[in-house]
Amino acid sequence: TLALYQRFVNDLTVPCMFPSRRTELWESSWTMFLLAKGTFLQMEDDLVIAFQLLLCVLEFFTKRFTPSLLQSPYKSAVSSSTLSPPTRTSRRNQGKAKPRPPEMDVQLLETLCKESDCSVDEVKNVYQTTFCAFLDSVGLSGLQGLPPMETLSKQYEELYYKNKDFDARLFLVDDETLSPNKTEVSKVEMTPRKNLSGDDVAIPVPQTPIRAAMNSIQQLRVDLTSASDQPSSNLLVYYKNCTVDPTEEIRKRVEELGQVFIKRFAQAVGQHCEGLGRKRFNLGAQLYYKVMESMLKSEEKRLSVQNFSKLLNNAAFHTSLLACALEVVMATYVGNSGASDSVETDLCFPWILDVFRLPAFDFYKVIESFIKAEPTLKHDMMKHLEQCEHVIMESLAWKADSPLFDLLKQSREEGPGEQAEPPATLNQPLHHNHTAADLYLSPVRPSRQPPATEAEPPTPGTKALRSNSLSLFYKKLYRMAYLRLKTLFSHLLTSHPELEPIIWTLLQHTLQNEYELMRDRHLDQLIMSAMYAICKVKNVDLRFKTIVTAYKEMPNTNQETFKRVLIREGQYDSIIVFYNLVFMQKLKTNILQYSSPRPPPLSPIPRIPCSPYKNSPLRVPGSNNVYVSPLKSSRMSPVVMTPRSRILISIGESFGSADKFQKINEMVSSTDWSLKRSLGGGSAPKPLKRLRFDMDGQDEADGSKSSGESTLIQKLAEMILQKQLNFEIFLLFKITVLF
């Protein structure tokens, strides 16, 4: 509400209204907006829809003033709109005519939308559905002048006492309890406006939450300009090449899921918002078809086949892909872009899973392939999808009815030697070359098998291969679990480093062999319990209260995780009760082994890779079509570093260590001294090998060059060396800043 009020005051009412009437307009228009938002928006924290409703309110007030009282460009918008008289109803039909909805000043509304970088079509939809219904409900549809402030205030007070929310009219009197901290305001990010004329200099404007949301939405629309909410001609060719044509099934599925989405959207936001839900679904459908085509092109290039019948007839794949596309759209509108301070609303993940009744484990399979297939995806949206993946691995995939348990049960039934993912693979690199086909057509592991898109299920009597999706899930789960354990360990047990691998071994054993403990529970609950158990058996004084206190300081944690843990069906209690009655009872024998003279062998420490999503191109801020991709083969990589580069670049050490600067000084001094002796005609001492460079493949350090080499060539060589040295010193500072 603060973000809306700041935009209302700073960017809308001041340039729009006549200053002498500002106080009266502030009170009336702001109160009407609060009344409309509280009456017709069931989910009031949807920033975008609330802002669109605010523009409707401003249109209502602005058009009731004569143009001379308005400032540009609103003056011209109202002036031109008054030239076209309203339509009249004939006398014959006057008695039969229905009450007309309030007339919308289209040009004025378009001007307001243009100044606010807001979608005109969406605002018109809000006006015709939500705002007109609101005006009818409060009896203001036929009003020609300004609504009486007393009436609006009285109606809002009734709403305020009914909802027991805070009184948002206090913003009008600058109430201190609602004012932001000055330090927060001063740190508002600045973004340049696009130049309207080629000569004007871009003026930075505050990057408010509303403007950030509008920019993200606008960018999403630009990225989807060439996309359609129907299959493209290329996609139709892929459909026709299938053994079983999926065209009709895909069309019916998208239509049915669209109806479900629009209905649930209206239930969450407001019954008059079905039109907005339809527009958001259409954007999601555009992204769905765009990414699907990109995936199929990539698969065709990888496999040299065009028949993707198994994948394109897989319902879970299509539902997951559409859900992922809609999650991107919804997160863009809500403003949930992966930031730690992003606002959570009823439409945030995992809302879309509930709408489509989609298992989280199925949704997880498409995330990595989706990000790879959509190069225009913003970096903050990639982080958001990565965070969705983490939420799935830590809890959502472990719901009681999750297909993950069926896969684990199947893996165990194949024999005692079969595991979801052998611990021996933990210290191996995690490869991110899996495709959607690999994961949705499991269980088939690509080893001496046909390509995943055309692989057949194992024949009866043969041993089924381990599921690709389960294997990758456990690889990522182990690495995420270890990172979280390591973070919590660093807050509590730095004086006992020998305990970390033991705690990890117990945790890894639990996830691998006692995975039923994760059913309807959270990964962090097992991490805290494992830490407490090992400390207990190793006689290290660490209380659960201390663990919980440190856990609360970790990012992306929730107190519900340790306050409400499933004990048995329908019964919940604290994590201490869970440890005593469930965790310890199940793992007592295994825990006690760590105090014996022959403890169990330690599990390998997972090899932690970089995020697979960091290799995607990043959009340059303020541009529509400029992207920066990571350098694939860096000239400064350790493989191709020269000995001199190795000395200069500090890898794994703190910046500014004395020995590094000392070596740089020695190199510079040696170079200067060598140059002076050469120019003076004296016999120069043999220079250090690492300070010389190779010419024509020969090493100059042994003095094998001709004695007739001129002083000029030596001088040029030393000058080149000095410039190269200066450049590498510059790189030292640059790399330090980057990291």
From TrEMBL:
Keywords from the named record: Cell cycle, Chromatin regulator, Cytoplasm, DNA-binding, Nucleus, Phosphoprotein, Repressor, Transcription, Transcription regulation
Keyword S-adenosyl-L-methionine part of the UniProt annotation: no
Retinoblastoma-associated protein C-terminal domain location: 591-737
Alphabetized InterPro entries for the sequence: Cyclin-like_sf (IPR036915), RB_A (IPR002720), RB_B (IPR002719), RB_C (IPR015030), RB_fam (IPR028309)
Subcellular location: Cytoplasm; Nucleus
Biological-process GO terms, alphabetical: cell morphogenesis involved in neuron differentiation; chromatin organization; negative regulation of G1/S transition of mitotic cell cycle; neuron projection development; regulation of transcription by RNA polymerase II
Ranges for region Disordered: 77-102, 443-463
Domain of life: Eukaryota
GO cellular component: chromatin; cytoplasm; Rb-E2F complex
Positions with biased composition (Basic residues): 89-99
Entry protein name: Retinoblastoma-associated protein
Species of origin: Cyprinus carpio (Common carp)
